[in-house]
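Contributing new records

If you add data, match the layout below exactly. Sequence lines come first and carry their own label; structure lines follow with theirs. Keep one chain per record. Anything else will be rejected by the validation script.
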Amino acid sequence: MPNYYLQRNGEQQGPYPTEELKRQVASGEIRVDELVCAEGTEDWVPVGNLTKPTSPRATMLGHSHSHSAAVAAMSQRPVTLDQVNEARMKMNLPILGMLLSIALPIIVWFIKKNIESGGVSAQETRNLLPLGIFVGLIGFATFLLWFRKAQKHAAVIKASYEHSRG
């Protein structure tokens, strides 16, 4: 594993072995949003990227570290208008999911009515509508949480872009 330099109070410290950085993060001596750079590279990243694996959910949302770490990382490189637009676009999928979650009980209700008019008894279809409502509510809540997370991320990127433009 490579050694890393730590940026603290505007000064470069180290290099430190990866295990030492992980130990210091675990003990609270180093915050997860402090920046490190591997020896031989010029890329400064939050030390939290070294100490915890990226979750699939975080990758789907387009970010893998806290918003404060994102701001710290973005302060090293200017944010482009394309990055702002991309962050806004990532909010579209959860919005679509929320709309489909709202439509699900309506679709189930129409299906139930068509089944009943085709000779199937109402007794046999009585659980369809409550199930559609339940699944719709769970889906809506899930997509709403995803949307809020994407919205916060877009706000951080936009603020960083505006800050870099002066």
